[in-house]
Design brief:
The complex is a heterodimer of chains A (114) and B (110).
Chain A: E1 5-7, E2 10-13, E3 19-24, E4 31-37, E5 43-50, E6 53-56, E7 65-68, E8 75-79, E9 88-95, E10 104-105, E11 109-113
Parallel strand pairs in A: 2-11
Antiparallel strand pairs in A: 1-3, 3-8, 4-5, 4-9, 5-6, 7-8, 9-10, 9-11
Chain B: E1 9-13, E2 18-23, E3 31-38, E4 45-50, E5 55-56, E6 61-64, E7 70-75, E8 84-92, E9 104-109
Parallel strand pairs in B: 1-9
Antiparallel strand pairs in B: 2-7, 3-4, 3-8, 5-6, 6-7, 8-9
Chain lengths: 114, 110
């Protein structure tokens, strides 16, 4: 059973460009979570999604960030007009059928904004 | 979710047991204790979790005190590859998000 997959693993963008991060949950998992880890800091929750629904986006910055988990395909975290402060590692996790189930993390996408 | 307190760093000799403590004095009855670790900026790795009883799996053991105010993660025979930051997280049953603190940086020495 393949684990959580994220791509790209490394992404370099210039200020003002858009970044799209993709997350494919483990097979059979219908819950996806995104976390961000800024340099030298801990992981912070961003958003929790089920298929076609955003359940909790309390950790998402108010502007430029959006997330989706369509009926088909991976979950996407989109950052518009990136700034240097967006440089971080972005981790996706998935859990089976209930939100209280254990979350399993992917390897992360490291975003560098030049 | 209840807060946890962990020592910022610990050292352990290779082959010895590593005992990582965690205090969660404000834990509620429906809150679980989870342990994850992060090896050198990789994705966090799930280790173990428990509610009241002690738990053991192929990676570690989790000892929860009777009053549930603290717990200890035990790696029975630490190896160099166990060097990582270990996070103790208290999570309400039904709560979606994990709230990570600063964790304990465990260094396993040869």
């Amino acid at each position: 059973n393949a684990g959580v997959m994220q791509n790209p693993r490394h992404l370099v963008r210039r200020r003002g460009q858009e970044a799209r991060l993709r997350c494919s949950p483990m097979k059979g998992h219908s819950h996806v979570y995104w976390y961000r880890q800024l340099p030298e800091e801990g992981l912070k929750f961003m958003v929790y999604l089920q298929k076609e629904n955003i359940i909790d986006e309390s950790g998402m910055p108010k502007e430029r960030f959006s997330a989706e988990f369509p009926k088909e395909g991976p979950s996407i975290l989109r950052i518009q007009q990136v700034v240097r402060g967006d440089s971080a590692a972005y981790f996706c996790a998935s859990s089976p059928t209930l939100p209280k189930d254990t979350q399993y993390f992917g390897p992360g996408t490291r975003l560098t904004v030049l | 979710d209840a807060k946890t307190t962990q020592p910022p760093s610990m050292d352990c000799a290779e082959g010895r047991a590593a005992n990582l403590p965690c205090n969660h004095s404000t834990i509620s009855g429906n809150e679980y204790v989870y342990w994850y670790r992060q090896i050198h900026s990789q994705g966090p790795q799930y280790i173990i979790h428990g509610l009241k009883n002690n738990e053991t799996n192929e990676m570690a053991s989790l000892i929860i005190t009777e009053d549930r105010k603290s717990s200890t993660l035990i790696l029975p025979h630490a190896t160099l590859r166990d060097t990582a930051v270990y996070y103790c997280i208290v999570r309400r049953g039904g709560s979606e998000k994990l709230v990570f603190g600063k964790g304990t940086k465990l260094t396993v020495n040869p």
